[in-house]
Amino acid sequence: MATENNGRSGYGELPSVAVVLRAFREPVESIRTDHRVLEAAHQLAQCHELRRSAHQDAHAPDAPSSHVAACSHLLEDIDADRAKLIARIDNWVAENIPHRRGASLHTETLGAVIDRMAEKWVAAQHAIGLPARNGNGNGKRARATVITRRGVDGEAHLQWVRLAELADGYKDLITDVIEHRRRLPVF
User: Fold this and answer.
1) Which of 12, 45, 125, 131 has minimal CB crowding within 10 Å?
2) Where are the beta strands (DSSP E) in the chain?
3) SS3 182
4) In sequence order, what are the residues at sequence separation of 6 or more whose Cβ sits closer than 8 angstroms to the Cβ of residue 3?
5) Do the beta carbons of residue 43 and residue 85 sit within 8 Å?
6) How is residue 16 annotated by DSSP?
7) Rounded CA gap, 177 and 14, in Å?
8) Which pTM does this prediction carry?
9) 42: exposed, middle or buried (C-beta count within 10 Å: 0-12, 13-18, 19+)?
C-alpha cells in the first residue's frame, strides 16, 4: 500500500468525475495513468447494462421457467464479474494512491463507489430512452422518448438526480482524499 511518506504524490492519478462518467460510455486511452480504473469503470457499465437486460428478460410475462433460470445464472456470472472489476479498482487504489494515516476512513472502497455510479448511469440512460451504448446495447431505444415540451418525466428526473448525487459524492470524496481529510479503504 502506498503511504504519504514514499515520495510520490499519486493524487493526480485519481480520475475526475467527468472522466469516470465518460468512461462509462466509451473505452479509454491506455496512455492514462489511471486507465486501469477507467477500463474497469467501462466494463462495470457494460455489466450493469447486461444485468438490466437479463433482469428484464427474466421478468417477461411469457418467459418460460428455463429462461428465468438461465437469466438467474447469468446474473450470478455478471455479479461475479462486477466483484472482480471492483477488486481491480481497489487494488489499483492500494498500489497507487498514498494513504494518510489519521485521516477519516471512507465507508466504501473506490471500486464500490464507481460500481454504484455505473449502475445509476445505466438507469439514467434508459430512463430517457437511450441505450447505454457502451458496446453491449443493440441500438434500440429502451422505452419511448420521455422528453416533452415540459421536460422529462418523473422517472427520468429521479434517475438523473440519483446519478448527480452520486457524482457529487464521488467528487467530494476524491477532493477529501487529495486534501488528506479522508482515506480510501483498501482490502
Assistant:
1) 12
2) 104-105, 182-183
3) strand
4) 98, 99, 101
5) yes
6) P
7) 9
8) 0.82
9) buried
